[in-house]
């Protein structure tokens, strides 16, 4: 456990030193939410903004957490520090655990700020219980995204090889996860494919929370699936992260 | 006891045979050099010895342990400095040392970090981020990281490549101090002058070890061109590069027959330049 904390502490120290990266990873979602506001202001009155805004906020946190974690881990490989960590006696589970722990803090920060800005700019108001649930869903999605980034990073030899995974994994989830349209309108195979993305479950939970008659079992089921999804990716990442060439 | 014992080690990357049946024995407590050109397989061999790479075949032991089976045990006993600096550049030298030292559970870590910083002459820049360091300073931080847990054996992959002459001399002084204190050093290099500073030397080419011997014995495989100018006559001849051969040749020119061996130790260009630089610093 102590070595997991050592890795987490180092990840956080690096983030603290890299003010540009930290600033961008917090400012980028804020800027996009502001642009969304300008875009949605052109919609006719009575348009259901919230149906899109909350899932898009979740998506941005998902995208950035995935990208940041995947790239930083690939950088560890290209710089030789990952190999050095292993030779210094760190085990796979300690490295992965440390990363998850370190990025949980960033994900919490990102989720809180993005949610607060979306609520403020779009003048949305929810009961405290619903807000806590919305935060919980976005936070769980962010953690799952960190694990997804970690898993994908094991297939990339350099930073550039992370980018092909964006059109392969991140962009399809925009179209198939119910972010833009109800997935039931999609062909059956596309609807099923949508179930493969974590954003699908986050969106399902969010639509339920902000809907008129929320069913708590649907929300909790989706959150449980997100937890399971994260744990599954964590297991995969710990198997694919190689400590020996 | 031998620090390293390797028999028939092979490693293939796709179509490239990086190691082709390497046999090697390294006794403990010495500086062992691995000399070879770029692409000779030096880093591959070192990675196999530190357990970062799985060879295709062969038997290999480091400090009596199998680098893959006894990974955890071995990693506590060895230090490794990779060819690239492999540091967190946005962290300071001290923070890098603290991180890698924590992995080994070094007792009194802060004190040990201070000692390692002093040993590698980095105290004045210890709290500066590594990205602002010169290549030589980064190499020293990397070396300090490898030394922190006082390993029994150190693997240094081209530790002085791209390092200026002054730092190179200082680095080799550090290596000798470590060897005198009982640490076994396994150092890869492609620099001939450095190879001469090792106690034993292996020459590697395209994944094969060509020869293992002392640097002096390897030098004796060469020939020396001797030019003698006597009155108006100049004669030139090739002789074996041994102290005895030189004395024998000079006997025919009247050298006292009781002198059996003659060795010249001319300064290298590096030593001459360093001395000039030191003189210039003193005069300023």
Automatic annotation (TrEMBL), chain A:
It is a multi-pass membrane protein. The chain crosses the membrane at residues 21-40, 52-74, 95-120, 132-155, 162-181, 218-237. Keywords: Cell membrane, Membrane, Transmembrane, Transmembrane helix, Transport. GO terms for cellular component: ATP-binding cassette (ABC) transporter complex. It is found in: Cell membrane; Membrane. Coiled coil: none annotated. The keyword Transmembrane helix applies. InterPro entries: ABC2_TM (IPR013525), ABC2_TM_bact-type (IPR047817), ABC_2_transport (IPR000412), Nod_factor_ABC_transporter (IPR051784). This is Transport permease protein. Residues 19-244 form the ABC transmembrane type-2 domain. It holds the Pfam family ABC2_membrane. It comes from Herpetosiphon aurantiacus (strain ATCC 23779 / DSM 785 / 114-95). Belongs to the ABC-2 integral membrane protein family. GO terms for molecular function: ABC-type transporter activity.
Automatic annotation (TrEMBL), chain B:
It holds the Pfam family ABC_tran. The keyword Metal-binding does not apply. It comes from the Bacteria. Keywords: ATP-binding, Nucleotide-binding. PROSITE patterns: ABC_TRANSPORTER_1, ABC_TRANSPORTER_2. Gene3D superfamilies: P-loop containing nucleotide triphosphate hydrolases (3.40.50.300). This is ABC transporter related. The lineage of its organism: Bacteria, Bacillati, Chloroflexota, Chloroflexia, Herpetosiphonales.
């Amino acid at each position: 456990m102590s070595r997991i904390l050592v890795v987490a502490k180092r990840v956080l120290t690096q983030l603290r030193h890299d003010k540009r990266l930290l600033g961008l990873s917090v400012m980028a979602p804020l800027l996009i939410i502001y642009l969304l506001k300008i875009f949605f202001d052109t919609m006719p009155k009575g348009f259901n903004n919230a149906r899109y805004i909350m899932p898009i906020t979740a998506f941005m946190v998902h995208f950035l957490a995935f990208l940041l974690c995947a790239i930083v881990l690939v950088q560890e490989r290209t710089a030789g520090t990952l190999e050095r960590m292993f030779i210094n006696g760190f085990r796979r589970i300690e490295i992965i655990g440390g990363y998850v722990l370190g990025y949980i803090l960033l994900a919490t920060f990102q989720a809180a700020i993005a949610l607060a800005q979306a609520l403020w700019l779009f003048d949305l108001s929810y009961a405290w219980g619903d807000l806590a649930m919305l935060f919980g869903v976005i936070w769980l999605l962010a953690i799952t995204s960190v694990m997804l980034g970690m898993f994908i990073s094991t297939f990339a030899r350099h930073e550039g090889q992370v980018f092909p995974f964006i059109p392969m994994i991140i962009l399809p989830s925009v179209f198939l996860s119910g972010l833009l349209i109800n997935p039931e309108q999609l062909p059956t195979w596309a609807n099923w494919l949508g179930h493969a993305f974590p954003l699908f479950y986050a969106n399902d939970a969010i639509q339920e929370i902000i809907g008129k008659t929320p069913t708590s079992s649907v929300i909790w089921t989706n959150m449980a699936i997100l937890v399971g999804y994260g744990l599954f990716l964590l297991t995969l990442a710990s198997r694919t992260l190689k400590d020996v060439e | 006891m031998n620090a390293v014992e390797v028999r028939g080690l092979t490693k293939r990357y796709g179509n490239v045979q990086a190691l082709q049946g390497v046999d090697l024995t390294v006794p403990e407590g010495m500086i062992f050099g691995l000399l070879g050109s770029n692409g000779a397989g030096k880093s591959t061999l070192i990675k196999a010895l530190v357990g970062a790479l799985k060879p295709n075949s062969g038997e290999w032991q480091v400090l009596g342990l199998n680098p893959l089976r006894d990974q955890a045990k071995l990693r506590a006993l060895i230090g490794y400095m990779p060819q690239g600096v492999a540091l967190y550049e946005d962290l300071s030298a001290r923070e890098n040392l603290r991180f890698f030292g924590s992995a080994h559970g070094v007792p009194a870590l802060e004190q040990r970090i201070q000692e390692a910083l002093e040993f590698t002459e980095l105290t004045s820049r210890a709290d500066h981020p590594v990205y602002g360091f010169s290549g030589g300073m980064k190499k020293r931080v990397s070396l300090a990281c490898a030394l922190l847990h006082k390993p029994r054996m150190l693997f240094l992959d081209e530790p002085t490549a791209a390092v200026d002459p002054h730092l190179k001399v200082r680095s080799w002084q550090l290596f000798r101090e470590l060897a005198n204190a009982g640490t076994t050093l396994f150092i890869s290099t492609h620099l001939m002058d450095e190879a001469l500073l090792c106690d034993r030397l292996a020459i590697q080419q395209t994944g094969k070890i060509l020869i293992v011997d002392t640097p002096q014995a390897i030098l004796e495989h060469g020939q020396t061109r001797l030019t003698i100018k006597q009155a108006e006559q100049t004669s030139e001849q090739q002789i074996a590069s041994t102290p005895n051969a030189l004395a024998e040749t000079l006997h025919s020119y009247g050298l006292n027959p009781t002198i059996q061996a003659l060795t010249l130790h001319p300064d290298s260009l590096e030593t001459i330049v360093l001395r000039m630089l030191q003189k210039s610093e003193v005069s300023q």
